[in-house]
Amino acid sequence: MSTTPRATIERLLSLFADGPTPEMADIYAVDAVFELPFLPPGAEHPEVGREAFRTHLVAGAQIQRFDSVDDVHIHETADPEVVISEYRINGTVLATGKRFEFPIINVSRVRDGLIVSTRSYSNPLAAAIAFDQVEALVGERTAG
Asked: 87-109, pLDDT tens digit by residue?
């Protein structure tokens, strides 16, 4: 059964609402590429592939819990494989109980019902605030 790129992204966003979970990785191609252009200096770039993403999701589930996705806007493009999704993930930092909201924009390429690449844009300051890492983020930016 074939699915549209939009339907694939809608499925991913529905899984985010109860994530992060390892099953989210099943929507990605085996050799999927993940780009995070706004990573803070010194942060590790994600490894290529579905299983690397699954490992990331398992680790993420140990520190945070998502409880909803809202403010969703999905934009189809002139390229039938490319979908732009805007959304906000709402959740909790497990160690502190602190609530967070992460606005995100993803540019995803979907082929044969699987995401083959994603460029994810989010504000690193929002994550630093949620995880009490502002000093580390600012220190990295001003060091040297």
From this structure: 999 999 999 899 999 999 999 99
Per residue in 25-67, pLDDT (tens digit) is 999 999 999 999 988 777 788 889 999 999 989 998 999 999 9
CB contact at 8 A, 89 and 101: yes
Stated pTM of the model: 0.87
CA dist 143 and 98 (Å) reads 28
